[in-house]
């Protein structure tokens, strides 16, 4: 029996999906983030409530639409009417939604985020949300709208057409298309994709390998996870195309073990692709064979570095090595290997299917297409955003992120995790592209963006990232292993009020030495958080050192908790009863006082003090504690 | 069969599925840990013998990676996320509270085997920061005080089991 042609597969998928599109159905965002917010309980509630009300409609688990702040997110799709998205859905809201928009004709607008436009399966957006004016969804266009465990939905929305086209083209033509598209590696460094592919294609030696780097280690970035959980076939298709171009028969997805749902979804996707003949032996009768396996990481940030990743896959300690030779010449098991990030592969299918302009018509001169960012921290709308290169940071933080939560002041945005930098308000208008960010002392890196407000301490942030880099340094290079540690010790001294001004100079010198004396990106970029905070927030460093004051009141050794006597409601005992170290004294009817010797500075009293009193405050420096409290301490002794 | 014999048998079965190839080392360690919950010294020695490697080299690889554990986890394992977003939202205070409430330090298991505490660089749920995972359930937006509340059912479950 001859195999099905792509046209037959595609027609089959379309008719399957057509049936679904023409019926009422419910989509629930059930990526890791949705699940953490309670999506599975919501799905359960929908099932029960629908059978109770006698309504039948498929409930489909989809990936993440990127509106993390609105999870759990539910879309009720009605072909004859509007599809409506509902945010922050609780199980209590489910009976109302079922009765309203599934059984009846009431769209429950008071609960709705907005309507969906653009068709459910291609670049849908919610026009009611102004953030979508700034977004351009290329690789996220299906995320949250298709069932990641259903290959038919992927194919019906144009999936695997790029592979079909590829198999009828010459590999050189694909590389040319990549060159025209301007695609640069999305792992952070931005190396032109076509050059890597070309080098690997030209390299002598066989077999060759394709590796997808899904070892997303930056604490605070999760876009690769979202892409794999929401639209895994896009990445798989990109890898198969790569295999065809460079002449490989085997690919690997190297994914971190902390992402069990992503691993499961890739597994399902691989199986489905094999069943349809889109992966495995003799793909689509072309004579080209290619298969993909999953390799799970064992938890090491440095494994994100290409040569270290290969070492880990070979069962060794994940230590980077010198280059050359590059992986394209001697990679996995010393064979030519093409290694790209998840997102890089995700762009490939549509570049092939729709032409280079699909990417090249967006973005800036040097950085084409879009960038995917995760927004977290003190912004109103945390989540995932895909924007054209050249969008400003201000648009991202304020227009898409919705600005700062509460009535706090923006302080900085930290981009690129432990390798990136903290950029202040004055730099918010720089355009986002590889080169502008590097100039500002940061980098695109992972694309993780953490927004800081006035309650975050710049020195503490630098200390946090350096602590991370120190722990994750593989230990091969002395400057990275010990230089970062020495920098960390200095930062700890600063945050504890033990440092002197000359320590800042030592930090700067060490930072340059660590950069110069490290082999791989981990060490070469580890000083960035320190350098950028020193460049833009030097006054905070000086306050810590000279005044023993943490202006943001974060560094525990420089702060004290204090109960304002005139705000304390004498009858209330919340703080006394919850203090874990029993450090608060004062019986009923008395003003409560913190015994500083016993206080562990855990912040529980601040948390539990009822908002109508708001009597607990943090003070810094420690010497600003009112003298009455100090004298009380003395008299007690 | 004693627990030790069971563990030996499980390790033997895993080894039986693999070729004697050093590049399988990490996969073997992962499989053994999935099966036994941690890497007992004896299992690592067997892996070393199986792959014809020096024991110290197996130890060197196992200790390099964050995932491998060398003591059994508690019945209720708690993980605190120390990612950037969680840190900025007060993750350190949450970690302190967990250490205080569980009476174990990060990386340790309590003497009665009930609780263990671990830290992870990021679980990727940054909008819910700070996050704690107790027995695979994600607890979003924790505060020092809510840590205490969240642990109550698990502590009670431990006590009831102890009584039986």
Strand order of the largest sheet of chain A: 2-1-3-4-5
CATH domain class of the largest domain in chain A: Alpha Beta
The biggest beta sheet of chain A reads: 5 strands, mixed
The low-confidence runs of chain B, each spanning 5 or more residues with pLDDT under 50, are none
CATH architecture label name of the largest domain in chain B: 3-Layer(aba) Sandwich
Number of strands of chain B: 4
- Main-sheet strand order of chain B equals 2-1-3-4
What is the CATH H-level superfamily of the largest domain in chain B?
Glutaredoxin
What sort of overall outline of chain A do the alpha carbons produce when their principal axes are compared? globular
Percentage of residues assigned to helices of chain A = 25-40%
What is the straight-line distance between the termini of chain B?
Answer: 24 Å
Number of spatially distinct domains of chain A: 5
Query: Given the helix and strand composition of chain B, which structural class is it?
Result: alpha+beta
């Amino acid at each position: 029996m001859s195999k099905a042609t792509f046209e037959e597969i595609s027609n089959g998928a379309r008719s399957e999906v057509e049936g679904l599109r023409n019926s009422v159905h419910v989509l629930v965002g059930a990526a890791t983030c949705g699940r953490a917010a309670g999506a599975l309980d919501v799905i359960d509630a929908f099932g029960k409530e629908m059978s109770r009300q006698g309504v039948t409609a498929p409930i489909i688990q989809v990936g993440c639409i990127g509106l993390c702040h609105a999870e759990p997110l539910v879309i009720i799709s009605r072909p004859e009417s509007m599809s409506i998205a509902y945010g922050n859905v609780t199980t209590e809201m489910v009976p109302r939604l079922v009765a309203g928009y599934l059984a009846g004709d009431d769209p429950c607008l008071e609960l709705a985020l907005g309507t969906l436009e653009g068709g459910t399966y291609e670049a849908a957006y919610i026009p009611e949300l102004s953030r979508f004016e700034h977004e351009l969804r290329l690789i996220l266009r299906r995320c949250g709208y298709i069932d990641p465990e259903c290959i038919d939905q992927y194919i019906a929305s144009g999936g695997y057409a790029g592979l079909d086209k590829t198999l009828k083209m010459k590999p050189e033509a694909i590389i040319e298309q990549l060159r025209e598209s301007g695609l640069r590696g999305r792992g952070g460094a931005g190396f032109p994709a076509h050059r890597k592919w070309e080098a690997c294609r030209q390299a002598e030696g066989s077999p060759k390998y394709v590796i997808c780097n899904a070892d997303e280690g930056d604490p605070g970035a999760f876009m690769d996870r979202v892409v794999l959980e929401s639209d895994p076939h896009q990445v798989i298709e990109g890898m198969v195309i790569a295999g065809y171009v460079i002449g490989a028969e085997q690919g690997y997805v190297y994914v971190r073990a902390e992402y069990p749902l992503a691993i499961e979804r890739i597994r399902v996707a691989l199986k489905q692709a094999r069943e349809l003949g889109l992966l495995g032996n003799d793909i689509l009768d072309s004579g080209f064979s290619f298969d993909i396996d999953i390799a799970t990481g064992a938890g090491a940030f440095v494994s994100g570095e290409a040569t270290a990743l290969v070492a880990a896959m070979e069962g060794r300690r994940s230590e980077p090595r010198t280059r050359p030779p590059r992986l394209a010449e001697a990679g996995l098991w010393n064979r030519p290997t093409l290694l790209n990030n998840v997102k890089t592969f995700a762009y490939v299918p549509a570049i092939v299917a729709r032409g280079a302009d699909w990417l090249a018509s967006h973005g800036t001169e040097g950085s084409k297409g879009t960038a995917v960012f995760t927004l977290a921290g003190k912004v109103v709308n945390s989540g995932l955003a895909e924007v054209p290169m050249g969008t400003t940071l201000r648009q991202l933080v304020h227009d898409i992120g919705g600005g700062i939560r509460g009535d706090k002041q923006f302080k900085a945005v930290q981009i690129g995790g432990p390798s990136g930098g903290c950029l202040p308000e004055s730099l918010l208008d720089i355009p986002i592209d590889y080169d502008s960010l590097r100039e500002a002392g940061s980098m695109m890196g992972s694309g993780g963006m953490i927004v800081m407000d006035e309650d975050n301490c710049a020195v503490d942030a630098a200390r946090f990232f350096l602590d991370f880099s120190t722990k994750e340094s593989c230990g091969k290079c002395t400057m990275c292993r010990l230089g970062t540690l020495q920098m960390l010790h200095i930062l700890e001294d600063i945050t504890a009020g033990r440092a002197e001004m000359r320590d800042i100079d030592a930090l700067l010198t060490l930072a340059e030495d660590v950069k110069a004396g490290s082999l791989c990106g981990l060490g070469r970029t580890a000083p960035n958080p320190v350098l950028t905070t020193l460049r833009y927030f030097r006054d905070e460093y000086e306050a810590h050192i000279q005044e023993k004051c943490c202006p943001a009141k974060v560094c525990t050794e420089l702060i004290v908790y204090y109960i304002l006597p005139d705000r304390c409601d004498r009858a209330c005992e919340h703080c006394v009863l919850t203090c874990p170290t029993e450090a608060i004294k004062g019986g009923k009817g008395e003003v409560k006082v913190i015994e500083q010797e016993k206080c562990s500075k855990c912040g529980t009293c601040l948390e539990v003090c009822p908002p109508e009193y708001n009597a607990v405050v943090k003070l810094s420096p420690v010497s600003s504690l009112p003298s009455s409290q100090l004298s009380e301490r003395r008299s007690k002794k | 069969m004693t627990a030790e014999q069971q563990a030996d048998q499980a390790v033997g079965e895993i080894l039986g599925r693999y070729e004697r190839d050093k590049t399988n080392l990490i996969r073997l360690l992962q499989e053994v840990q999935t099966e036994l919950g941690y890497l007992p010294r004896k299992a690592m020695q067997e892996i070393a013998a199986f792959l014809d490697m020096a024991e110290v080299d197996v130890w060197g690889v196992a200790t390099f990676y964050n995932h491998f554990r060398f003591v059994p986890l508690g019945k209720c394992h708690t993980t605190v996320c120390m990612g950037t977003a969680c840190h900025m939202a007060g993750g350190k205070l949450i970690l302190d509270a967990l250490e205080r409430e569980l009476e174990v330090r990060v990386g340790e298991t309590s003497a009665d085997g009930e609780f263990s505490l671990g830290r992870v660089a990021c679980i990727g749920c940054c909008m819910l920061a700070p996050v704690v995972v107790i027995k695979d359930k994600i607890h979003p937006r924790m505060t020092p005080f809510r840590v205490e509340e969240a642990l109550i059912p698990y502590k009670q479950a431990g006590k009831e089991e102890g009584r039986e």
